[in-house]
Amino acid sequence: MNTAVLRTEFRLFGREPGAVFWVFLFPTLLLVILGSIPSFREADQSLGGLRPIDAYVPVAVLIALIMSGVQTLPQALTGHRERGILRRMRLTPVRPAALLSAQMVVQGTVALGSALLALVVGRLAFGVRLPKQSGGYLLALLLAAAAALALGSVVSALSRTTKIAGAIGSAVFFPMMFCAGVWIPVREMPHAMARVVQLTPFGAAARALDRAAAGQWPGWEHLGVLALWTALLTAGAARWFRWE
């Protein structure tokens, strides 16, 4: 990967206050708002004795990945295509693939940084326990990040303009937020609904992170769903993506 391109993309990302806020700061801000509600700091038997704020830390982590994957990444890539940047790069030693790789590294790094911030703030501000199965948690988090970026790449591939990318991204965004458990934690969903939701990338990620946070190794079925979605979405993005 071209380090100059990577540094440039990081600087460009830093100049987008909206992207910085929604991807890096908003998930933790939402966690702080929820944690400020007294009932969210009390044990809930329907959550197996956990407090709602404990259950929402993995949700905050996934929000960062969803924001980065289906909102920020498609806007950036289609913006480069729309302005002819990818086409002009063909005349230079830097290949367009370097820009695509750099964008994925930037978005993935910022999203993972946001996840770390949510974990730290949850621990310091509300006494949320850090994941007991750290290795499994990290594996599930990396697979979820890969799935989110692959999904964003598909949105980019199907979008000719930033307006279309925004529309498709928004259409995908809210169902993925539901599957991640933003409105109803996956563990609280009716059995039939939960089974369906866990077949989606972020539903599977939510359950994998929950299990790892509780000290269990993430279910292989959940990790397998994440890996399968990543492979399918990556193949689709590679097939449909156009540089011009």
From TrEMBL:
The ABC transmembrane type-2 domain sits at: 18-244
Q: Which GO terms describe its biological process?
A: response to antibiotic
Q: Which residues are listed as membrane-spanning?
A: 20-40, 55-77, 98-125, 137-158, 165-186, 223-241
> Does this UniProt record's set of keywords contain Transmembrane?
yes
Tell me, what is one Gene Ontology molecular-function annotation carried by this entry? Answer: ABC-type transporter activity
Spell out the subcellular localization from the entry. Answer: Cell membrane; Membrane
Asked if the keyword Cytoplasm belongs to this entry, the reply reads no
Protein keywords = Antibiotic resistance, Cell membrane, Membrane, Transmembrane, Transmembrane helix, Transport
> What is the membrane topology listed in the Swiss-Prot or TrEMBL record?
Multi-pass membrane protein
- GO cellular-component term (any): ATP-binding cassette (ABC) transporter complex
Major localization class: membrane
Record-stated family:
Belongs to the ABC-2 integral membrane protein family.
What name goes with this protein? Transport permease protein
Q: Origin organism of this chain?
A: Streptomyces fuscichromogenes
